[in-house]
Amino acid sequence: MQINKIYLWFLFLFMITIAACYYDKYNQIYPPDAVLDCDTAAISYSQNVNAILSENCISCHNNGNASAGVALDSYEQVKIFVQSGAMMDAINQVNGIAPMPPGSKLTECDIIKMQHWIDGGALNN
Ligand code: HEC
């Protein structure tokens, strides 16, 4: 009986110790600059998507220099790769697609904006 009480006491202390180690700062799980400060209100092709692509992709993907046959100058051209899924796979750097941009990655907020635009129907707006 005595043994059982000591055992339970240690079990209790052990559980408290484990519980005390749980560490979940909200800001570290969801970095504020990445998710909380990302303004996804009124994302449009002309205001946001085109700017992200111009800044990060167009130098290698334009009509004069279309790496891998991918040109992203116009909405119609962008839409092809959005619909095939290659755009978000390349940006998210998943599913065996060549990671884009090569050697770096878009900011979390830019990726969220792209996804937001696509979720809204990838409109020419
Ligand atoms: C420095 C030049 C460069 C930049 C900047 C660049 N790309 Fe690429 N991209 C390439 C090259 C080269 C390939 C072919 C890579 C391969 O097949 O290994 C490619 C391939 C692709 C493909 C086809 C991938 C596949 O496997 O089918 C897509 C889609 C793409 N890029 C989108 C983008 C997007 C979107 C951006 C901007 C976020 C971007 N790229 C930025 C050079 C670039």
Order of helices and strands: HHHHEEHHH
The description of the largest β-sheet is: 2 strands, antiparallel
- What share of residues are in beta strands? under 5%
Oligomer designation: single chain
What's the N-to-C terminus distance? 75 Å
Describe the structure.
This protein has one domain. The protein contains seven helices and two strands; from the N terminus they run H-H-H-H-E-E-H-H-H. The protein is mostly helical and 125 residues long. The relative contact order is 0.13. A hairpin with a 2-residue loop joins strand 1 (61-62) and strand 2 (65-66). The structure holds heme C (HEC). Residues 56-57, 59-61, 67-68, 70, 81, 86-87, 90-91, 97-98, 100-102, 106 line the site of heme C.
Describe this structure in a few short sentences:
Helix content is 55%, strand content 3%. Helix 4 (45-56) packs across helix 7 (108-119).
Keywords:
single chain; 125 residues; mainly alpha; two-stranded antiparallel sheet; 2 strands; 55% helix; elongated; binds heme C
